[in-house]
Amino acid sequence: MTDDLAYMTGHAALKAFRSGDLNPIALMDATLARLSATEPQINAWTETWPENARRAAEAAAQRYAKGDARPLEGLPLAVKEEMRLAGTHRASGSLVFRDRVDDGTDVYIQRLIDAGAIPIGKTTVPEFTILAATHSRINGISRNPWNLERSPGGSSGGSGAALAAGATVLATGTDIGGSIRIPAACCGVTGFKPSYGRNPEIPPFNLDYYSHTGPMARSVADLALMQNVTSGQWEEDIASLRERIILSTDAPADLRGWRIGWSADFGVYEVEADVRSNMMRALEVFAGLGASVEEVDFRLPREAPRVMQDYLEHLAGAGVATALPNHRAEMTDYAIAFAEASLRSTPLMFYNANQMAAELYERFGPMMAKLDVLVCPTIGISAPPAEYSYVNDRLVFDGSERRMLQQEWCSTLLFNMFSRCPVLSVPSGHDRLGVPTGIQIVGRAYHDESPIAAGLAFEAAQPWLDRPENRPLQRL
Q: Active site includes 155?
C-alpha cells in the first residue's frame, strides 16, 4: 500500500476504475490499511466494518466488469456518527444514547449508497454535535493528523480527521454552525454547506434553517460528485428543493470576468496573522486566474456573534436540555453548559436572532448581487487544542495564551444565519507550526455552482495533498 493510493481522490479513482487501471478492491485495501495504521492515535472512528466493506468492493469490481457501475461505485465512505445507517450505533457522541441502534437509514446516506459509495465506518463527534472540537466521554479525544495536540475541529471532526489521514475517500457531515467547514479547515480538506433545502434532511431538523447536511472530501471535484447524487426533493422533507443543480467537476480555464469580494473579519471576528496572510495569498491566486478582487465594506454589529449563538442555544440547546433531569451525571461539562444556557434563553432572544438575520441580509444580499463569490477565513485560527470546549476555552492565539469563545473565531456561523448562501471551505495553507488553515468561498443565495466552480479553479492552481510532503506531518 502506498500513500499515493490512499490519498487518491474519488474523481481520479473513478476514472481509473473505468479504464481498468485500478480495481476498487485495491483502493479499499489501501484505505483500510491506512485506517488501521492511524488508529487509535487519531481516534476518528466509533465503529468500522472492514469485512463488509471489502465484500462490497468485490461487488463493485464485478459491476465495472459488467459495465453497470453507478456514479460513485466503489468509493469508500465515512459516515458521521450522528447520521442514521441501519444496523449501526448512533450515540450522537453521548453516553445517554450509548445503546441506540438504528433500524433505518437517513435519506442522504441512502442516496450515496444507492450511487455505489461503500460505508466503511462511522466517525466521531462531540456530544450532541454541539462543539467546534471533537471529544466526548463515550469516545475520548479525536486528534488532528497534522498535530496530535490539536483538534480536527467539530462537529464533523472524525470525518475531517479520517480524510486527512487517508483513511477514507468520501465522508459525510452536518452543519448547524460550521460543523462541516470547521473540520475541513482544521484538517486541510474540503467541505461544502449547500444552500438550505438543497440536500434533504430528516424531520424535524429539516425545519431548522441553520441546519444542513453535506459532503466532505479531499477535493472540490469529489464534493461535486457527492452533491450530484444527494440533492433533490424528498417527499418527507417539506423544505427540500425540487430543483436539482448538476455541478461540474471540471475546473474553469480561468476566472476572467469574475467579481470576488473579500473580508478578513467582518469587523468582529478574531483572526490570527497566519490565517490572514494565507487568505491574502489565496486572493492572489484568484487574481492570477483573472478575477477582479476587492475588499467589501460589510461590518457586523459587535453583538452579532453572540446573537447567532443565542439562536443555537434556544433551539438546539432545548433538545440537549431534555437530557439534564435524568442524565446529568453522564453528560460532558460542555453539554451541560450548553443545556443550561438554553434554559436561560427567552423567546425574545430567539426573536431577536431572527430579526438580526433579516436586517443583516437586507445589506448582505444587495452586496452579493454585485459579486460572483465572497472569500473570507473559514475560522480565525488554524485549529483549537484537542480538548477545547465551552468550559475549557483556552487556546494560543498569535503566540499568546488566552480565553476565546468559539463564536469569536468561528465566522462559519454567519452563513448558517444566511443559510440559503452555499459555502465551500478549501485549504489556504498552513500556520507556522504546520497546521492547516482554510478559506470560505461563499455564493449568492441558491447559486451552489458558483463556489464550486471557483473552488475547482483554485485547487487546480494550488493543489493540496498531491505529494507526500504536502500530507500530514505527523506520520502515523
A: yes
